[in-house]
Structures are given as structure tokens and as C-alpha cells.
Amino acid sequence: MNPEIGNFDLKPHFRAWDREYESLVWGGPRSIKAIREHLPEGSRVLDAGCGNGRYLLPLSRNYRVIGIDVSLNGIRAARSYLDKYGCSAEYMVSDLTRLPLCDNSVDGIVCYGVLHHLFEEEREDAAEEILRVIQDKGYLFFEVFGVEDMRYGGDEIEKDTFLRKNGIIYHYFTVEEIEKLFSCSGYMDIEETRSKKVFRGKEYIRHTIQGVIGSI
Fold it and tell me: Which domain covers residue 126, as residue numbers?
């Protein structure tokens, strides 16, 4: 069965992900420890920006999952990996600004490494959509790039937002920006991670912001 196609504009920075997934290789499943600490098995979980399935695969072993991504190539890769391991999920091609889901229809949303690929207006729309589809007392699990990250910089097209040569948008967040974006949520548990990387004898910083946001 083909994945359902949601209603979204094929904006250039969305189309760029199809080209990206033509060459991206499977990096293996990622840890879902934080999610399992908050959501009981069998919960309905949306992987918002599932890509080629690095979180979708382990999620599918514990939850009823929906994988959404702007890239059909990404969705196809994710389905292939899940099929390989005898796992299943629902799949939809859509962006975060107009989720093809009913109000209060999921218990949790996983959004790792996605919000920083959107413009400011899109990030605001995505936050509204996330809070719309999540159940009362549900959870959003997120991770984004921080402004101190070594990759910050380039062709700035909005504040702290850059366009790369591959056509993909990169935005770099502050904690205050996350708090403002989800200010109408219930509670926030936000952390920052700064790790040192050395390239050719020079030290750099990888800066991420991650956490759990509770619905009202």
C-alpha cells in the first residue's frame, strides 16, 4: 500500500529532502528511552519527520505509530526498514504545518531534528498543529540545534536561519525561543547539551536543545 499523501505545498526546502534521501544511508535505530519513561506501551505516537525510520523502527516495537515526512523517498526507506524487521506503522507524506490528523488524536509526538528545518512562520504553525493533535496530558519529545552550534552561519535568510547549498533550511534555537513557541503548553522539561568536537586540531562545539513538553 502506498503512503497517504497529505495536503501540503511542495516548497523548495521541502522538495530538497527527496534529493537528500536519495543518498542518505540508514544509520541504525536510535534510543527511545525518554519516550518509554513517559508513555505506556500501546500508546498512539506520531513520529513527526520520521525520515528513513531511525526512531520509527524502535517506536513501532512498543507503540501504535504514525510516520509523517515531507519526503516520499524517506517514507519509502522507513517502510523498507520496518518491513525488514517485521514491524509496521502508518505512513503519510505531509509537513508539520498542516498535519492530516484529528484533534487530540495521539498520545505523544516525537519531533527530533525537525523544527530547525522550518522558517519562522512554519515553526509557529507546526507548534500549533502539534498542540492541536496531541491528547490532553500527552507529551512532545523534541530536539533542535542551538545557536552555539559549530554549524551556525552561512547564507542568513531569517534571524538565526540559514539556507544550505542543498536547499535545506537550518535554524538555530535558544531555550527562550522554544519556551515562547510552546508557551501555551502544560509544562516544559528542557535541557541543553554542549559537546566538544576536534577537527584538524581545532576545538568546536555541538549545541543541541532537547526535552519533553507536556500538553495542557
Answer: 4-214
**Cβ–Cβ < 8 Å for 140, 212:** yes
When divided into structural domains, the chain yields a total of 1
- Check: CB of residue 216 under 8 Å from CB of residue 186: yes
210, 33 Cβ separation under 8 angstroms:
no
Q: Are 117 and 93 in contact (CB under 8 A)?
A: no
Question: What values do phi and psi take at 88, rounded to 5?
Answer: -140, 160
- pLDDT of 59-79, one tens digit each? 999 999 999 999 999 999 999
Q: Which CATH number belongs to the domain containing residue 179 in this structure?
A: 3.40.50.150
Q: State the average pLDDT for the chain.
A: 93
Name which of 151, 155, 176, 160 is nearest 120 in CA terms.
160
d(CA 92, CA 98): 12
